[in-house]
Amino acid sequence: MSHAVMVALYARVSSEQQAKRGTIDSQIAALVERIAVDGEQIVEDMRFVDAGVSGATLIRPQLERLRDSAALGLVDRLYVLSPDRLSRKYAHQALLMEELSACGVQVVFLNHAIGVTPEESLLLQMQGMISEYERAKIMERNRRGKLHGAKRGSINVLSTAPYGYRYIRKQLDGAPAQYVIELPQAATVRSIFQWIGMERLSIGEVTRRLAAMGIATATGKPYWDRSVVWGILRNPAYMGRAAFGKTQSRDCLPRVRAQRHSADVPKNGYSTVRTDPSQWIEIPVPAIISEALFQSVQEQLAENRKTARQRSHGAVYLLQGLVVCGHCRYAYYGKKISTAAAKGHQRHYAYYRCIGTDAYRFGGERVCDNQQIRTDRLDDLVWQQVVELLAHPGRLKSEYDRRLSILEEKEKTSFDTAALERQRLQLEKGKSRLIDSYAEGMIDKADFDPKMRQLKVRLEQIDHQIQESRRNNAGQSELFLVINRLEEFASAVHDRLDTIDFVMKREVILGLVKRVEIHKEEILVVFRVDPDPGFNADENSANSDAGKKSMQDRTRRNHCALGSSLGRSHPTAILHNSRLKPFADKPEQAPVCNPVSQKHQHPFMVDLIKERRDIRIQYPVHLLAFQRDR
C-alpha cells in the first residue's frame, strides 16, 4: 500500500518592498496551482516562505526549517519557482540539491524541468552560475551608481530624511531632490543638542525631558527610545554635512552568547558595521546646528560612556579616568600599596601608575618607564588648581560669554570647514594635472611657473582658513561644555570648601578638567577653559591682543613653591608665594601682575606672550614615587 506524498513549497523574495508589493504571493499562487495540477495537496505547515531575505546566504529562517523537515523525512517533493529562489549562489544551490537528494526529496522547478541526463544537469548548473553573476552585476552597478551620485552631491543616494528634515523628490522640471527643514522638529533637534552639549545631560535625562514636555517622535509615539536620541546626536547631517557610506555590510558575525528577544537564526545573513569617518562622502544639506555644538556633543557622549563605566564599578580615586602618561600615552590607573611593599607599615594611600609600566600586559616587557605618583598628593594638587580657577566665577562666565559670542560671529562670516577641504582637494587635483601637462610637454616652463606659484599661494590661504575654522570650532565646543556650569561649580566649592564630599569634588573636576598628563619632569593639568581668560582686556589696551591669540596659560613652579602652595587656598597667597613664571618663548618678557589692582580685590596674571589653557607644574620632590614615606 503506497503512502501519500508529502509535498512542500519554498518561495522567497529579497527585499521588504517586494514582499509588500505582493511579489511573493504570485510565487505561492503559481506553486499551489502546479501542485493541484499534479494531483497533490499541500498543508499550511509545509509552506516555507522567506519574505525579504537575501538569496546570497543560507541563513534563512524558513530555509532552515525546510532543511530540518527534510532531514526528518517529512518532505517527499519540494516545489520551487526557479533555482535562483533556492539560492543566488551556484555553490549553495549545489549544496542544497545534494542535501535534499540525500534525504530523498524530489525537487521540482516550475520554469525548469530537472532531468537525469548530464546535459540537463549541466544546464541547471549554468543557470545557477548565471543567477549568481546577475546578482553580483546588479549589486556592483547599484553601488557604483550611488557612489557617483554621492560624489556629485546628490541627495538621491541617501535613505529617507532624518528627523528634522523632509525629503523632496526630484521634480519633473529637473530640480534635484533635496532636504527641507521641518521647523517644529528642527527646534526639538536643536534643543536635544543643546541639552547634551551645553547643559551636559545624559541621553536618559534627555528622553525623560522630551516625554515630560509632551514632544512626540517622528512616528507619533509619546516616548523616546534612547537609541533614537543617540542616532540623532551622531548624525552629521544636522551640522549641514550628510554622509554617504557610514556603514557597510559584512558576513554575519558569530554570537558570543545568546541574546534575549532575538531569534536563533537572524533574519539577515549579514552584519552592518560602521566605517571609518575618513571613508564617508559628505553631501551638503541645510544645517540645523553649528559644527562647534555638534563636536561638543560628541565629546560629551564620549565622556558619558567613560563615566558610565566608572559608575558601574564605582570610582575609587578622584582623578580616575583623567590621568594619562605624557611619555607613552597610556592611561594611569590607581593601585593600592601591596602588603609586600608596605613592609609591615600602615600605608593608607595608593599610587597612580602607568599601564605601560606593567610588564605582564605586554608579554613580560615594559613599554614605559614613567614614574608612579601618590594619589592623595596629586589629587590635592589638581583640586587646588580647580579652586584657583573658580576664584572669580562671575567674571569668568562674563568673559567666556563674550568670547563665545565672538566665535559665533566668526563662524557666521567664515567658510565651512568641509567646503574649504573640498576646495583644497580640487586645487590638489589641479596641481597634479598641471604637473602632468608640464611633464608631457603640453605647456612650457614660462607658463608652468606662474600657475604653480598661484596654486601654492591659494593652497596656503585655504590651509590657513581651515586651521582658523577648526580652531574656532574647538574653542566653541570647549566653551559649550563648561560655560553654563561655572557659577554652579564655584558656588558648590566656595560655600562648602571644608565639607565638600568626594562625589561633588569629582563632579566639579570632571566638569572643568579635560585631562592630567604625567610627564617625566612635569605635570600638565589641561582645563577645558582658560584658567586666566584675561579680564584686563578691556581696561588695558596693551594686553588686549594677548587675550585673542588662544585659550591657554602655561605657568611653571619650582619644587619649593609648589610645596608651599598646596596648603593655601587664597589666590593672593598662591600667586605671591609660588613665584609663578611664564613658560614662554621669550624669557626676557616678564608677566604683568595685576596692572589694574586699584579696580580689583585679587591680583591675577596676564601673560603678554601667549595666553594658554594648560598649567605645567615642575615635579615637586614629594610627588615622586621613589620618595615614599617610610
TrEMBL record:
Record InterPro entries: DNA_bind_recomb_sf, DNA_bind_recombinase_dom, Recombinase_CS, Resolv_N, Resolvase-like_N_sf, SSR_resolvase, Zn_ribbon_recom_dom
UniProt name for this protein: DNA recombinase
Sorted UniProt keywords: DNA integration, DNA recombination, DNA-binding
Enzyme active site: S14
Biological process annotations from GO: DNA integration
Domain Recombinase residue range list: 162-307
Domain Resolvase/invertase-type recombinase catalytic: 6-153
SUPFAM superfamilies found in the cross-reference section: Resolvase-like
GO MF terms, alphabetically ordered: DNA binding; DNA strand exchange activity
